[in-house]
Amino acid sequence: MANVKSSKKRIKVTLRQTLRNRIIRSRTKTAMRKVVAACIANDAAGAKEALIVAVKTIDKAATKGVYHKNNAARKKSKLTKMVNGISA
């Protein structure tokens, strides 16, 4: 256990940030799963709607620093290719 006051505060802050990041990551993964599920079901309209939501959540996560911008771009690209593949 930390003895210094600043170390104790850093532990609290880190726990809070970890929880926040876990929540954001979970929301993002759920949104991505919905896109994949719609693609597997060959539901083009549902996949496009789910893609819009997924891209928005991925962008928010990248803005908050949960994902690196290149990681976020890779995730969005992968989902977009998947959706475009079923609508083509």
The number of helices is 3
Q: Any idea what the CATH superfamily is called?
A: Ribosomal protein S20
User: What is the CATH architecture annotation?
Assistant: Up-down Bundle
Query: Helicity, in percent?
Result: over 70%
Distance between the termini: 58 Å
The counted number of beta strands is 0
Whole-angstrom Rg: 17 Å
Shape: elongated
CATH class: Mainly Alpha
> What is the CATH T-level topology?
Methane Monooxygenase Hydroxylase, Chain G, domain 1
Provide the β-strand percentage band. Answer: under 5%
Structural class: mainly alpha
Spell out the helices and strands N to C: HHH
Main beta sheet: none
Count of all domains: 1
Indicate the low-confidence ranges by residue numbers: none
Q: For the residues shown, what is the average pLDDT?
A: 95
Describe the structure.
- There is one protein chain.
- With 88 residues, the chain is mostly helical.
- It has a single domain, classed as Ribosomal protein S20 (Methane Monooxygenase Hydroxylase, Chain G, domain 1, Up-down Bundle).
- It contains 3 helices and no strands.
- It has helices at 5-40, 44-63, 69-87.
- Helix 1 runs parallel beside helix 3 (69-87) and helix 2 packs antiparallel against helix 3.
- The longest helix is centred in the N-terminal third of the chain and has 36 residues, at 5-40.
- The radius of gyration is 17 Å and the shape is elongated.
- The termini are far apart.
- The mean pLDDT is 95.
Q: What key attributes describe this structure?
A:
88 residues; mainly alpha; Methane Monooxygenase Hydroxylase, Chain G, domain 1; 3 helices; 85% helix; elongated
